[in-house]
Amino acid sequence: MSKIHYIPHENLPALPPYKTEWDLSSLYYTSADDPQIEADITYAIRQYKAFAKRWRSKPFTTDIATLAVALQEYESLTGNPRISRPGRYFSLRTELDANDSTAEKALAVQRKRLRPASDQILFFTLELGKIPSAHKHVLLKHPDLKHFRYFLKELFDSARHDLTEAEEKIIRLKAPQASHLWQEMTEKLVSTAQVKWKGKVIALPEALETIDTLRSEEKPKLWKLIIEKIDSFGTPAEHEFNAIITDARQEDEVRGYKKPYSATALAYQHDEQSIEALVEGVTKSGFTLSQKFYKLKAQYHGVPSLHYAQKYDSIGTEPTVPFSEALTICRDVFYQVNTAYGAIFDSMLERGQIDVYPRQGKRGGAFMSHGTGHPIQVMLNHKNTLKALETLAHEMGHAVHAHRSQTHNSPLFDGHSIVTAETASTLFEGLVYDAIISAASEDTKIVLLHDKITRDIATIERQIAFFNCELEIHNTIHEHGAMTHAELKETMYRHLKSYLGPAVAIEPIDGASYIYIPHLRYGFYVYSYTFGHLMSSIMTGYYKADKSYRTQIDTFLSAGASDSVVNIFKKIGIDTKKPETFAMALKAHADDIKTFEKLVNKHAPKKI
Ligand SMILES: [Zn+2]
Fold first, then answer.
1. Residues 562-593 pLDDT 10s
2. Spatial separation of the C-alpha atoms in residues 165 and 123, rounded to whole Å
3. Helices vs strands, H then E, count in the chain
4. How many whole angstroms from 603 Cα to the centroid of ligand 1?
5. Could you tell me how far CA 352 lies from the centroid of its own chain?
6. pTM for the whole thing?
7. What is the mean pLDDT of residues 250-269?
8. Would residue 603 be called left, alpha or beta, if left means φ above 0 and alpha means ψ between -120 and 50 degrees?
9. Which of 61, 77, 99, 403 has its CA 20 to 30 A from that of 489?
10. Residue 518 and residue 183: Cα distance in Å, rounded?
């Protein structure tokens, strides 16, 4: 296997000694028996009670000075990390080991104790939502409430969908069993299942990662084992989907949301029209591009069609990227954009905030997790592949965004919309990819261009196919009351086919993929990847043309949730309301495919 001969810039600081596992005992608590856990839970209960006692029976929305004090206290309560630390600690433990029953029990007990405590402050935001319109306008303009302006605006907008306090409490009480526990069941079935591959028993999440490291002709064999195992969970998955989607739909109706994704648009500080424009644009123009690409790819390999498991197959030798090399490339790029980003990276490595390798029982995939006052955590399942390098860049992009946003904003505004989050992650992913391409030899560049296109398709067309699939499942369950596993599978199959086209031989059983893709359960979350990717490719273009655009990049990363998505992009020169903006972003993707077409026509077919 080939290697990337990446030469970092001479000013890249030496890699400090680092950890490859989360060091939860020094970052959170020494163990499940740490007395500090009980102390923090008791403290949290006291804090909620004190806040409720102080403000519940007092009118706090009419007088500006009183309201300012109440809001300040609310901000410090919700941003107090001691309150959320026990829950965060135990849920991180369950990510590391799905069989950690101590953590699961602790979480259940905590939920039982903390939910009624936190319910006591529900009245606060509900009261704010009930303020008469005329007074809301006064508050939004008042200079003494300037700090809270965006928080109040968002709150007033979503308050239109609020229910009564008693109803909100019932919904919160029923939420775990209506949705979360169902999802956890499927996730647990998948993460603890095993397949036998080459005489070795391996966990399903590891098998899913392993598939990328295999030779092309072996991939369909392992995929068959994986998808048959996943398909065997059809009955529980069917019940899970019907339960969680019916739950979401019924809650939407009660709250008066018109479309299945209306609540998502509001929660992401986004708007329905721009989501629809994006989905329509990609479905119409994007799917033609991805289908064209797979046709060219099949032609390149000299086969009539590719197997579904071979859709990401490289056309050359995929370089191996050991974790140490992946670190060098990523750190170099992060340091180049801004030394502060490199420093964040290094500190997370040193303090054990990145869990690198797959293990039995550990959740599959990768994610970044953050919270006010808490260490940022990144989970990976690193294999020595190019894809794993991209994942590292992606998750660390999330981490830098979370870090900058926490540094520059107070607790109420230090989060971010999921839409801007996926922009940040794909921005770094793209920059790292460009760095690798520029370090590559001419022959490897062709291979990498091909890989870049497959990666882009996975983020642009594939996610919009998921969106369309999720929407169809929502509407079908709503209209017909339920869907069977066979119907769910068939729907997924059709939508996979819609962006892959005739050049990828996909079989009905591949539709069972809906079971193991957790993102289909996140209420149209999938579109955020596409949106983020298209926005970040525009930003990368600006940065490559003029390095001083790094200032705007930092403005973007530091904005947190201090403004709407539209305004945050407007500040850095991108108009997300214009359809031309999406067209411009898709054009770069189309150009890449055109370049690939030229290269394919020059080459004789190469056997898979
Ligand atoms: Zn992401």
1. 999 989 999 999 988 777 788 788 988 998 99
2. 6
3. 27, 7
4. 35
5. 21
6. 0.81
7. 93
8. beta
9. 99
10. 8
